[in-house]
Amino acid sequence: MEQYIDFFNSYREKIDEGCSPLLNSFREKAFETFRQIGFPAYKSEDYQHINIPGLLKEDFGFYLNHSGININPHRVFHCDVPNLNSHKHFVVNGHFVDDETKKDLPPTVFSGSLNAFAEQYPELFSKYYNQLASAKNDGMAAFNTTFVQGGYVLYVPENVVIEKAIQLTNISSGNNNSLINRRMLFILESGAQAKLLVCDHAYDENPATANTQVVEIFTGENAELDVCELEESSPNTIRLTSNFVRQAASSHVRINSITLSNGITRNNYIIDLAGEHAKTHLYGMAIADNRQKVDNYTLINHLVPNCHCNELFKYVLDDEATGVFSGRIIVAKDAQKTEAYQSNRNLLGSRDCHMFSKPQLEIYADDVKCSHGMTTGQLDENALFYICSRGIPKEEAVLLLKFAFTNDVIQGIRMEGLRDRLKLLIEKRFRGELVTCRECEKSEE
C-alpha cells in the first residue's frame, strides 16, 4: 500500500497529465479515502478467500498517458459474434480507442471516452461520476479513482432506444508487468434502452497484468439495460472489478457475468433497488481449471417496496481451481412486497478443486417472498450411465451434462446471436480448445 501512496505523491502531475481537469478533481478526496482505509483486508468478512494486498504487493508498472498502446485492436481482435448486429468499441490498457463506429448511434447518445464525456457534458459527469463508488466507502474503488486516467462512458438520454448492441472490448497489452486502472460509466435516463457486451482479453500471455475496474450504472424510471461481461484473459491476469448499480422506479437491469478463462478474478456487484417495481436479474457462470480462481461477491439492497431480484451463479471447477460465491440480499424494513431469489450451484470435477459458498438473506420486512440456496456436487452418475447406455462415448456424455448444467445461465442472455456464440465457446472450453478472438483472426487470414 505504501508504494502506491508514495507513487501518487511523487507523480501527481504525471497522473493528471492528459486528463480532464474534472476527472482530476476527484483524485484528492479518493486518495485520502484510500490512505485511511487501504485495500480490503485479507480474511475480513467479505474477503475470506482473496488476498488483494498480497496480489497488488508486486511492483507493477503503471500505464500512464496512453503508454503501451502498441496494437491496432481493429486488426488484431475481430470479436465478431455471428448474428449480433453491434457497434464495436475498444479500450486498450484502460484508454478508449476513438473510432468512426459512433456515427451509427443516435445523435443524442454519447458512447466514448471518459475524458471526452467530462469535457462535453461537465454537469452530467459531476452528477454521476464516482457518486456510487464513493458512497460505499470502498478501498478498491478509491484506489481506482485515485489513479484512473481513462475509460468508457455510455449516456442514453430520455426515451432513446439503441437498437443495436454495443460491443466493448477491453484489451490488456504490453511487454512488462503492468497495473491497469479503467473506468466505466453507464447512464440511462428515463425510458432509455441499451444492450452491452463487454469482453476482457489479454493480448500477451507472459507478462503479469493486474486490472482494477470500477463500473457505475444508473438507470432512470422505466429504463432497461442488458450487460453481458465475458472474460477470456490469460493465467497471468488479475482482474479486480467493482460494479455499482442504482435503479429508479420500474427500471430493469440484467447482468450476466461469464468467466471462461482467467488467472485470478474478483467481481463485486453492489446493487441498490431504489425505486418501486425495479427489477434485477443477476446471473453468473465460471468455468475454471488448473489453478484458476474466480471469486464473486454480491450485495443487493431492496430499499423500497414492490421490487424483484433473481440471482443465479454457477461454477464448473476442475483440477486445482478455486471458486468463491458470497451473496447477500438485504430487504429493508419498509420494503414490503419484495420478491428476492438467490441460488448458487456448483459442479466439481476433481478432488483437488475447492468451492466456498455463502448465500445470505437479511430480511427486515414481514410481507415478502424470498429464498436462497446452494448445491455443490459431482456429475449425476445415473444420468451419465443412462447417456452412455444409449451408445454415446463417456467423454461426450460428460460434456453434454456439463453443457446442460450451464444452459439456464446462457438462456438468461437476451442477445440471441451472443447466446449462440457462447454455446460454441463453452463447448470448446469444456473440450480444452477455447479459441480466442486473436486466434480467430489468424485462422481467417
Which helices and strands occur, and which strands form pairs?
Blueprint: H1 2-16, H2 21-24, H3 27-37, H4 52-55, E1 61-62, H5 73-76, E2 86-92, E3 95-97, E4 110-113, H6 114-120, H7 122-128, H8 131-135, H9 139-147, E5 151-156, E6 165-172, E7 178-188, E8 193-202, E9 209-219, E10 224-232, E11 237-247, E12 252-261, E13 264-273, E14 279-288, E15 293-302, E16 308-317, E17 322-331, E18 338-348, E19 354-363, E20 368-377, H10 381-389, H11 394-411, H12 416-430, H13 437-444
Parallel strand pairs: 1-7, 2-6, 5-7, 6-8, 7-9, 8-10, 9-11, 10-12, 11-13, 12-14, 13-15, 14-16, 15-17, 16-18, 17-19, 18-20
Antiparallel strand pairs: 2-3, 4-5
Give a verbal description of the structure:
The chain is of the alpha/beta class. It has one domain. It is 26% helix and 39% strand. The protein has 13 helices and 20 strands. It has helices at residues 2-16, 21-24, 27-37, 52-55, 73-76, 114-120, 122-128, 131-135, 139-147, 381-389, 394-411, 416-430, 437-444; strands spanning 61-62, 86-92, 95-97, 110-113, 151-156, 165-172, 178-188, 193-202, 209-219, 224-232, 237-247, 252-261, 264-273, 279-288, 293-302, 308-317, 322-331, 338-348, 354-363, 368-377. The strands form two sheets. Strands 1, 4, 5, 7, 9, 11, 13, 15, 17 and 19 form a ten-stranded mixed β-sheet that branches. Strands 3-2-6-8-10-12-14-16-18-20 form a ten-stranded mixed β-sheet, covered by helices on one side. Helix 3 (27-37) runs antiparallel to helix 9 and helix 11 runs antiparallel to helix 12 (416-430). The longest helix has 18 residues, at 394-411. It starts with a helix and ends with a helix. Mean pLDDT is 90; it is low at 439-445.
